[in-house]
# Entry
Amino acid sequence: IGDGHYALQGVKDTLVENYGVNPEVGREEECKMGGGDHRDKCICACVALNWESQSLEPFDTHNERFKNSNLIQFLAASSDAPVYFTTPSVITAPRKENPEEEASVNYIDGGLGANCPAVQGIDVAKERWKGRDIDLIIAIGAGKDCNPPELPKNGGDWLKRLCTMVTDGDNVWSRFVLPLLEVDDACKHTEKQRIQPRIPIAKFKADSIKVIEMCQIAEAWLSSSAGFLEVTEAAGKIIAKSLKLEV
# Structure
């Protein structure tokens, strides 16, 4: 748990730097979510928690409701982790029940309940490609500690451990995603796999900025036999599905 608060503006500045610059004119411009024909195109989406309704909401690039909305505000909201940031993100967008009107709503990090957002991804796919089966789902985790957790020694340690358990993407995958795939008509023949690097992430604080060291550890896992097998299996499924083969 962070012992201080951070300015969300730093996150927004990084997002603008990476996604909000128009390379043709070399200046920052508002980056729109998009919209338009979605039948043969890729969909990019993120998830945030609506604080008023206490429900998880996906925001995707081919939803007509958001096509003129600023991409940065959605990405910032999905990264707005409680405790680390002082205030919720405010998203201003057309109302779902009345798109002609706009509303400003508080959102926080979608990792609270959707650290593995496969369920929300399934909902988006079913909405955008109505009546079509979902052939393949691959969930990629951000990493899980390869060592068993130590028994917490005090209240602070227990709070950290409980937060980790609540946001455990593997738990979401096994307890919610897999049972859903068994009963959902669109997913009865879906191939599925979760890739979760087993790495010593406990050595890093949740707000660590040792990015290079983290990448080196992840690369070492990818080079290991376990990492190679997981990634190769997933790549094989993608290729097979893209070639319309039975697997």
Summary: Helices lie at 8-19, 71-77, 111-114, 118-128, 155-166, 169-183, 211-223, 225-242. Confidence is low (pLDDT under 50) at residues 22-28.
